[in-house]
Predict the 3D structure of the following.
Amino acid sequence: MPDRLPRGLLDTSVVIDLDRIPVNALPVEVAVSAITMAELAAGPAAATSEAERARRQDRLQRAEAVFDALPFDAEVARAYGRIYSAVREHGRSPRRRLADLLIAAVALANALPVVTRNRANFIGLEDLISILEI
């Protein structure tokens, strides 16, 4: 079994599935971004049933209790310009996966690999950030 990453930024897909992911598949130290917290905050409003709304609200509250989110600040905004450019160079639309690219900018600015369930969302960024799909 490969060694665990020492640190990593979890994208929203990982936080959503956190209770189904073996701990040894995750980095030793994990972080989330304010962008992930925003996506989780929108989750209850997007639910189509009361039961799903309650599950999403519970997930949000647990994440808020566990994580101190890395902010989207001026350094991250500058990093987003590099992320945006890399995606365009690969012929992809930066607007289609805006939240994922903002998370990637947080990772770049904080020198963290992105840990994701959806590697395809980060295609074209491999020269800027490390991406671990779990």
Observations:
- The radius of gyration is 15 Å.
- The chain has a mean pLDDT of 94.
- DSSP finds five helices and four strands in the chain.
